[in-house]
Design goal:
Structural class: alpha/beta
Shape: globular
Order of helices and strands: HEHEHEHEHEHEHHEEEEEEEEHH
Number of domains: 2
Strand order of the largest sheet: 8-7-9-10-6-11-12-13-14
Number of strands: 14
CATH class of the largest domain: Alpha Beta
CATH topology of the largest domain: Dihydrodipicolinate Reductase, domain 2
CATH superfamily of the largest domain: Dihydrodipicolinate Reductase, domain 2
Number of helices: 10
Radius of gyration: 20 Å
Distance between the termini: 38 Å
Largest sheet: 9 strands, mixed
Oligomer: single chain
Strand content: 25-35%
Length: 313
């Protein structure tokens, strides 16, 4: 929210949180902002849009409530815990004819943009394979993340969401079928009956564009650094990759590979974290309408997650 306020694209006029401590922090950071303790009070304000950053189990109902009142929504991922909930939100956005977007932020990194430009130029030929990895050595710090009923899943829905989105977005694929999947918790199969979630996930997909995609993500992995993030695309005429630098969650570099040669496509250092929310806020004028193309992408993403969870049981 601070980044949005600093961008000058929108005025942050109100915020809500049930935590008194969180409300105090907002009041200190954004002193001109009206502070409420619940969503209903927040929606009583005259708002163009609302940003939802709450536990995943609340996302769908809160988004539907806002859309029903004609308020556009920008939601942290995941939009919902499963495809059924996702489709309820998408239908609410369609009925309200209001903008709905999700913070699939890694698309906005300079390195990801460089990969997409190179792929779209055609200079790599046909993209036949992709390897994507996201390991978080620490894992989440809120207890609800590890309860399936509250989170919808573990590292797959938390980190794998970004990998699947990048794979589809970079290869311009509308969907994918699941070839195989394996979900583990502390090295063993996940006990779904106990409301447990996975801390390690592997999956192989085949996109409708014909690309074979291999995904791996985890929490609490002994990775030797805070984070490991890699996305490599292999084409018939070359390859491209983006990787995080020095274990960072935010600093990435992109490279082009030709045989044994490589050259840099982008460098780290750009502040890209707020680009997604700023782009959404810029559309809260005449363009504040239902985004059918975006909804199709969100539906496909949630469907693939559901299918990986089913295949990995």
């Amino acid at each position: 929210m601070q980044s949005l306020a600093a961008s000058g694209v929108a005025d942050v006029v109100a915020a809500a949180d049930p935590s008194a401590q969180a409300r105090a922090a907002v009041a200190e950071t954004l002193p001109d902002t009206e502070i409420a303790s619940d969503l209903d009070s927040l929606l009583a304000s005259d708002l163009d849009g609302i940003v939802i950053a709450t536990p995943s189990a609340l996302h769908a109902e809160q988004a539907i409530s806002a859309l029903a009142q004609g308020v556009a929504v920008y939601c942290q991922k995941p939009l919902a815990r499963n495809r059924l909930e996702t489709r309820r939100v998408l239908e609410a956005a369609r009925r309200a004819d209001r903008l709905l977007a999700v913070d699939l932020c890694y698309r906005n990194a300079d390195a990801a943009q460089a990969l997409r430009r190179t792929v779209q130029s055609g200079e790599l030929g046909g993209i036949y394979a992709a390897d994507l990895v996201f390991h978080n050595a620490y894992g989440p710090d809120k207890p609800w993340f590890t309860q399936r009923s509250l989170s919808g899943g573990g590292c797959l829905i938390d980190l794998g969401t970004h990998l699947i989105d990048l794979a589809l977005w970079l290869t311009r694929s509308a969907g994918a079928e699941i070839v195989s999947a394996r979900l583990l918790r502390r090295g063993r199969p996940v006990d779904i009956a106990a409301d447990a979630v996975e801390d390690f996930a592997l999956a192989e997909l085949r996109t409708d564009a014909g690309t074979t995609v291999r995904l791996a993500c985890s929490w609490f992995l002994p990775a030797g650094q805070d984070c490991v993030f890699e996305c490599t695309l292999y084409g018939t005429e070359g390859a491209v990759a983006m990787r995080n630098l020095d274990g960072s969650f935010y600093d990435f570099a992109a490279e082009r590979y030709d045989g044994t040669r490589r050259h840099r496509l982008s460098r780290a250092g750009e502040d890209w974290g707020a680009r997604g929310i700023a782009a959404w806020a810029q559309r809260l004028g005449p363009a504040n309408r239902f985004d059918a193309a975006g909804a199709t992408e969100l539906d496909a993403l949630s469907g693939i997650l559901d299918e990986i969870y089913e295949a990995g049981r």
